Every structure is written in structure tokens, then in C-alpha cells.
# Entry
Amino acid sequence: MKKNTLLILCLCCFLITKGENGYDLWLRYKPVSNHILLSVYRKNITQLITGDSSATMNIIKNELLTGIAGLLQTEIGYHHSVTRDGAIIAGTPRSSALIRNAGIATQLQAAGDEGFVITTKKINGKQCILISGNSEKGVLYGAFHFLRLLQTEQPITSLHIVSAPKIRLRMLDHWDNPNRTVERGYAGFSIWNWHTLPTYIDQRYIDYARANASIGINGTVITNVNANAVILTPAYLEKVKALADVFRPYGIKVYLTARFSAPIEIGGLKTADPLDAGVQQWWREKIKEIYTYIPDFGGFLVKANSEGQPGPQDYKRSHADGANMLADAIAPFNGIIIWRAFVYSHDNPLDRHKQAYDDFVPLNGKFRDNVMVQVKNGAIDFMPREPFHPLFGAMPQTPLMMEFQVTQEYLGQGTSLVFLAPLFKETLESDTYYKGKGSTVAKVIDGTLDGHRLTGIAGVANIGNDINWCGHPFAQANWYTLGRLAWDPAISSEQIAGEWLRMTFSNQPDFLKTASQLMLESRDIIVQYSNPIGLHHIMGTGHHYGPAPWVSNQQRPEWNPVYYHKSDSNGIGFDRTVTGSNALAQYYPGARKQWENSHTCDEKYLLWFHHVPWNFQLKNGRNVWEELCFQYYTGAERAGKMRDTWNTLRPFVDQQRFEQVSMLLKIQHEEATWWRNACLLYFQTCSRLPIPLQYEKPGHTLEYYKNLRFPYAPGI
Ligand code: BDP
# Structure
């Protein structure tokens, strides 16, 4: 072998073993591996023509050129007119005469404000691919969609795609603090470096906007719901403006969280009473000021009177009074107020499950037109499995926005592979029965049931300054999922997993089959080994890391796991039927029916809605204690198998990401075993029944598990 060849070979080996650090997310644009397809692509993609130059159009042009160069391993030229077959024409009817005269007006009409049309068409006798939209944002989404077709190795010779988002606001909620800590963040510190803003524009801000645009996200709340008023001061508004300027050409609007007591804290007022004229004036001026920095500012997200946050109830005013005061002040600028329904109070003795509904249903229809009420998917708090929130379908005159949690606060945090699409879909597909059978949560959210114009889905972001953005390489899939489902809640989990895996790892069928199954089962597995048959909120207090079902010493009752499982010598579970808290009454009869009788209850939610004796029989013949043992042991065993499965995928994955996932799966298996042992040993002190002999004995005593401490667990 010649010296040079050897050198090149060594270099190649080095590059392969070095692997990928994950920074490129699903936008890697690696060469198309299917050679037949590659030659079809090369034949059908030969030149690029875009509409008149603008910030967004330049982004579109660069993205298409970069993407195509990477995927097709060939530079296509940028032209002004169609000279050969295979021209890609990207633009709006306004920015491009070719698009304007292409005869696609009907399709464009169906694409609406933000949608896109991708169609194959003869122009000047040449076969072209048109990527178009009524707005540049639509074209941008279309460009990313087109690249996704290539990345996922789909046919492109006859394209007739019209796609419009089903949801208007597709947002990420960052729980990022000014000091760069991230509440419930498991991927390092905040990506916003407030100290160096506004002058220093980190490349990450641009890459963040690009990644979001690639999945249709069009809004970002950049600050924590547990808000800090400092963000509303001029020095910080300058910084927010700098970010907004970066995001704008990517079609992303900036939103902020508003601390309700800001008029006192930074305005020098004596009160923050929403009915006080001085307070109203203060917010009007503050909002006007914000719009001088950010003319397209999206609006405020507000957490009020929840978990100690200030709010209108401090002045005996309602949530509507608070929201409407801000809504009136922001209306002249077309901004909106997103008011959170995640409220519960320590002086409310009612089941926490019921409190938001009780507070908000009487306010149905009392909010201004530019207010949305943001409701978590379930009534407790982003649990691994939770019935849908009874507010969905209960406030028909008020647009409700879905709040999912993308960051895995209760689902293994930064160490677990848990694909969240099945969880999100489970909620979206749940039937509220509010307008009869088929009134799914998705239809409440997308406005079809009540004709709402304002619609939205938000996800609490899982992004930090870790090199791969999300910490766990597979956590990126959950960010991806949020965008895809907000665009269209009907997309299946299988499709999302498939797309993401193809773009993030490989298009090899053997890889895809195994890896997508791994993803699709993962949420079920974590439910099994952490919160089976309806158990919930039994995680470590404060940091929520790992199991702690024994905790009972917290100041507020609903901060204690014992509040949620109510395990004692008689049995286990939370009675939410008429004999208990009757939270079930908040659901429509059709929905209620599936849960109200302990003998017919969907067993996934048995202990969510019922307190049952230890010898209660399940449909499979096991009693509750045996079922808990079965679930915990099976779940932990399946978690172990996830690693074995991943290990079979070594040939398809670069070494760096392969090892990362493998090590994390080892941690996950250890954590699953810890969950199993700690929970069963604790519940055994109530049931006083033995762990069946076929199972291996827990490796430690209950005391050992109780004494574990995690003072520096992330995310607090
Ligand atoms: C809980 C989190 C807490 C958040 C709260 C919220 O533990 O950190 O502040 O939700 O959504 O899940 O406001």
C-alpha cells in the first residue's frame, strides 16, 4: 500500500471512530446511502432558484444548498432562470414570478399563512420541483420538509404535498433563569448567556432557531415560569431584543414570562392589584416599551397564584381579572397572554387533582379574545402516565393551549431513554366526550370543536448548553416530537420515531426496525418500573430524582408522595370516586365510565382513581400486590434488555454516540432496579406480603434506599 493511501485510510478510521457529538441534531445532511436513490436525486435536483432576496430567503437558499451538497455530495448551482431539468424553485408568489405563474394558486390557498406546497411541475418545458408558501416562513418550512424527504430517503419524482399546521402557536417554554440555571433542566446550563448579550451572539442562538424552524416551532418563551422581573428592565430587554432579532428570520417570535408583582418589584408601586389604575398604567407603559425593542413581541406566559408565585388572588381578584388586565394592555400590539392553569394552593384542602378545574371552569368565557389558558396534559403534573386533564372540554368558550413537558422531570431526567411521542399522543387521542364520542383532546386543542382561532401546543424545553443540546442523545427526539406533533397532532409515534432515527442516525432498515421499537416501548417501560398501574408522584422530593414513596414530612400535604399513593395496611391507591375526592366528577360521563368502577377501570389507572385492598384481583388473576411485584420486576428487566438491544446496533452507529447511549442505558437499568427495590420494599411494609420467590431479592434494605441523598441532583 502506498504511503498516501495508508494515511488517508488512517484518517478515515480516525474520523469514524471519533464519531459525532450530536450538535447537528437531525440536520446532519450526511450522504444518501442508497445509491439508486442517490442517482435519482442527482438527476432530479440540479439547480436552485429562489425568490427575491430577504433575510429568510437567504436562510432558505443556504439551507437548501448546504443540505443538498451534503446529501447528494454534489454542488448544485444557484441560478436565476430554469435552464435544465431538475430545478428547485423556492419562493412565495410575491417574491418569485416563476411561483406566481406556476398555476398553483389553489394549492397555495390550502396552505394558509404558514403552510407550504411542494410540487413537481414542468416550467419552460423543464421538470422542476416547486417549494412554495404564501409567506416566506411557509417556504422555509417547505424547504426543511423537502430536505427531510431526502434525509429519510423518500421518492421525489412526483411530489404533490400541501401541508398546513393544525396548530397556530407551536412553542417551546424554557424554564431558564437569569443566572443560567434551568429549572428541571438536565442538559447543562441555559443556552442564553445573559451576561454577554446583547453584543455577543452565540452561534448556538442561530442554530437553535434553525433547528426549531426545521420542525415548525414558531414561538419561544425564553424565561422560567417562576419568573424574575429583571427580564422586564431595559438592560435585559436589550438582550431579549438581540435574541428576537436572531429568531425573526426563522419565523420565531419571542415571548416572556411576566412576574405578576413586577409593578412593585421594578416599578416602585405599592400594589400589583390588576384593578388598580396605576398598575394598569404601569403594564401599559411597560408593554409599549417592550414593543419599541421587539415590534413583533409575542406576549406573556404567566404562572400566577401557584406554588407561591404572586397573582391576582393576592388581591382577591380572579385569574380572569389578572389575565384580562395584561390582555388589554397588550391588545393594541396584537400580543397575547398565555395564562397557566397549573394552580394549586396549600390552603385548599381539596384533592390537588381538582383545584385547577374548580378555579378555572367558572371563568369559562370570561377571558379576553387574546388570552389562552395553558393546561398541562394531566391534572397533577407531567406524570409518566396521567389521565388527560379534565379542563379539556370544560371551557369551550376559552381557547386552551396544551402544555407538555419535553424535559423529563418525572421520566428519568437526563439519564433515561424515554421517547415521549406515545405519551403526548395518549393525551391527544383521549376522548373527553364533551361533544359526544370522538371529542378528543386534540380536537379541543386544535380549535375544531369550538371554532377557536387561537390554538397552541407548548412543550417545556429540554435544551441546555450541553454539546448535544439535550444531554441524552435520544432526548433530542422529544424536542423533535414536540414540533412535529404541534404541526399535526395526527402524526403517529411510529412515523416520528422513524423520521428522527433516519435523520439522526441511519436509514438502514435493520437499524430502524430495532431502534424504533426500542423508542416506542421506552415510555411503557419507565411507567412499569417507576409508576405502574396508576401510581404517581412518588419520586424523590424536591429534585424528583428516583423513588421516595415513603416521604411524608413535607410542609404541604400534596408535596408528599404518601399523599398520592395512600398505601397502608388496608390497601393502596387514591380514591377519586364518589366515596373519595370525587375528582372523577370533573370528567364527562363517557370518560368517567372507563374509570369509575374499580372492577372495570382501565387498569393503567387503577391506583390513580381507586384505593383497593392488597388482595384486590386484577383481570389477569393476580392481586394488587402480586401485580405491583410483576410490573416492577418486568419493567426493570425490560430496562436491562434495552441495553442489550442497543448493543446489537453498534454496527450502525458512530462510536461516540453509541458509547454514550450504552453508558446511559446502564445507568437507566441501575435506576430501574433501584425504583423496583425501593418501591417494593416500602410498599411491603404496608402490604406485609412477601415478594414472590421467583424474583431475585432486592440488593439492599429499605433503610439503605431511604438514606440515599442527592443534594446536587440537577434541575433544581
Ligand atoms: C412542576 C415543577 C416545577 C415547576 C412547576 C410548574 O416541579 O419546577 O415550576 O411544575 O409547572 O412540574 O410551574
Notes: The domain at 528-574+611-706 is CATH 3.90.1330.10 (Alpha-d-glucuronidase, C-terminal Domain).
